[in-house]
Write the structure tokens for this entry.
Amino acid sequence: MPAKERLDLNEFAWIAMESPSRPMHVATLLVYSLPEDAEPDFLNQLVAHLRQSTEFVNPFNKILRRPTPLRPYPVWERNYDLDLEYHVRHLALPKPGGERELGMLIARLHSNPLDFSRPLWEYHIIEGLENNRFAVYLKMHHSIVDGIAGVRMLQRSMSSDPDDTSSPALWSAPIPEELFEDKTTTSRLRRALTGARRSAASATHVARQLYDTLKAGINDKDPLLLPYQAPMTIFNGRIGGQRRFATQNYDFARIRKLSKTAGCTVNDIVLAISAGALRRFLQEQNALPGRPLVGGIPVSLKPKDDQSAGPAVSYAMANLATNIADPKRRLEVICESTRRAKGVLQDLSREEIENFTAIIMSPNAMQTSLNLEGRTPPVFNVNISNVPGPTEPLYLHRAKLEAMYPVSAVTHGQALNITCYSYNGSLSFGYSGCRDSVPRLQRLAVYSGEALEELEATFLPDPGVVDIGTAKAARGKKASA
Amino acid sequence: MPAKERLDLNEFAWIAMESPSRPMHVATLLVYSLPEDAEPDFLNQLVAHLRQSTEFVNPFNKILRRPTPLRPYPVWERNYDLDLEYHVRHLALPKPGGERELGMLIARLHSNPLDFSRPLWEYHIIEGLENNRFAVYLKMHHSIVDGIAGVRMLQRSMSSDPDDTSSPALWSAPIPEELFEDKTTTSRLRRALTGARRSAASATHVARQLYDTLKAGINDKDPLLLPYQAPMTIFNGRIGGQRRFATQNYDFARIRKLSKTAGCTVNDIVLAISAGALRRFLQEQNALPGRPLVGGIPVSLKPKDDQSAGPAVSYAMANLATNIADPKRRLEVICESTRRAKGVLQDLSREEIENFTAIIMSPNAMQTSLNLEGRTPPVFNVNISNVPGPTEPLYLHRAKLEAMYPVSAVTHGQALNITCYSYNGSLSFGYSGCRDSVPRLQRLAVYSGEALEELEATFLPDPGVVDIGTAKAARGKKASA
């Protein structure tokens, strides 16, 4: 008799949001080098090996069961028997197998919804990537995973030992219960949402009061931005069901050096790179608003009233200063804005943070309570997340992981998502967008690289320190569609 | 201002049937040889060339517009501007690029629904097929095309001259209006459905009377089968959203020779091959019913009261004699059954035929009036269609078309579809099935080849005439998933 469990409210919200124009899955694109001595059928063997798994762990073995007349709520059924020939797929890129072909394939795969009559994940092994590489695209529904948990799960299915081939398959690797319990930042966020939404009316009330208090305390010169102060942009309307995807990969040392010299955080540099790219991208389309774009930045906080139970997660509103042409001044405004936002959030109690977050983040709150859905002013213009990943090189059956890119969900009102993963000394950006609302997404990735170079030229005293070789390599390492 | 037109009832029915577990698109898989002197980037050039089209013909340029408060019915909007990078796709097979890899890819592509916010078609060019070949998978929604019209459209986008590269792209080739008017068998069928369903109650009444009359006239020894006399099988339950696909390709001369020797039609041989394969396939799964399976066979008729207006199309019920072990006796029963069924249909008036057909074929009638949907006895067990195609070799920009396979829609109550296209001296079978209800579909294709060999061994006086080379080649030419 398979175990059944009810969905928590957050899981339910992700499921309820799913629609053909808004599939709510998230994915990771992993790029590997083939081992130097790999046999020609290395990937066929890997696929065959992975399909031999017989043990499946949560959440890979659970399936959604819709409500029935006798059970008027959906449940997860565990220990579902997996059809691995379905879930584990072997694909190939057309020639020349460059980042462009990869980006187009990922965009198409990411546009296809998951099959809700099966466990909500797919694992695609993609051969034919130039320079002796291959890729893996792992897609999971947002109701069973989030970015941080996904990265940790992937990490456990690889080894730091180049010769170790004993790592269990992703779906067979035992997952420490912390990943699903109350000790991680992500599950804190889930708890915040769930708790707040249990009493949605009161949470909305508290958050509204908080919002009004904050608003009353700021004046024109205060760098603090609040939700719903963002201008309308092409990224904030209704979306269709098709996606675009582009990537950029940077040497982390470049970002760190820049942040030290400019006296700001790595996150601020991530924002400044994105801001510079967004400014040029929108300008080119005659679509740059007069007011600055607002980035929604997930932040991890220690509430002042409750430092014992680990961090609380919320969203800070960052002024991206896209109305400012000077890159130096733009970065300064970004830094002021994030510093002030974090300061305010750090002064809040845990309950205040959780309610504040719930009103921003909860899909249901966004969709229904506040009647957003891409028809009203956006809570912010674009999500810009920075997810920490493994710092040491990892190997999948002797194939070295070269880079790891997030492929995110977009939704009505949020047609563009910028997320980066750090891994082994590099920072890898995934740009996920709606095909219709965000044309020429590839250019955004290109302009990001140029925005980084511009910041380096501005802040680094000796232009010689810009390692042209690295910059060019980074420009070469992009995929798009 | 784009032209708008209302959907006819048949189009509307196909659209209304669409659901995640029952996408209502049909497709054709075309296998080509690369020209002998093809440049390495032949396919990239072909893709680029096809994407340059600027003229688009019906039905490729029309998009479905859902009802609005001011227009409470859906319409087609013509002259929609196409995003050809979306509709025309370049894919590749993983190595070794055999029929197995092709079958798995086609099964996956056929499981993905079309995007209803765009014109309802996709054209996939697939590289990496072994022996210097490539494939094209053309998917269209059943509301804008049927099998026969699809084959004719494809034909017009190719040339019978191996050196002709001037053929317009499929979506730019002017289509003679007959294809959409009342002169073809397919549009007759559409007219029959539409006409009958305008007065659904009366049509149902007439058909029921007809059914009762026919039933009263037959006794135990009469080979005539009527709708709803089929046994329940694994092919006739509810389906999921994923597909399997397998193919077989035969030299048409083998089929013709067999039909002449056995004194039956080519269609009877197609049925006998399928019947032999189905018998073994079901036996192996301990799922062969005691009563014979019933095949639903589209037939073209000249109504006795109205021979002037071209043929009427209906469905004959064929006894597949799957309860009979002896292949000779099995073919005899099949022939008796189809002869009797056609005889009865030929005695009907045009109105009787059309009403009779409507009750069998109309998706809405099946789904609602008769409350089928894979929960009640099936109208028949499996559709077996034989669609005539081009008799001369065709070329797409100098690449020779080697074979052309139908990839059909399946639905609740009809989880398996067997359709074959004839082309240039060969007969190509496409087996389309629900992934969950029809496991090991590939074996059905293999057993079909063996059923043909068995018939040849039974009927052809000199076993020497079985061309072993051809038989082996046919066995080799199958794809599956």
In short: The longest helix of chain A spans residues 327-346. The radius of gyration of chain A is 22 Å. The domain at 1-179+225-348+379-481 of chain A is CATH 3.30.559.10 (Chloramphenicol Acetyltransferase). The interface with chain B takes residues 20-21, 40-41, 43-44, 83, 86, 89-95, 101, 104-105, 108, 111-113, 115-118, 127-128, 240-242, 435 of chain A (CB under 8 Å).
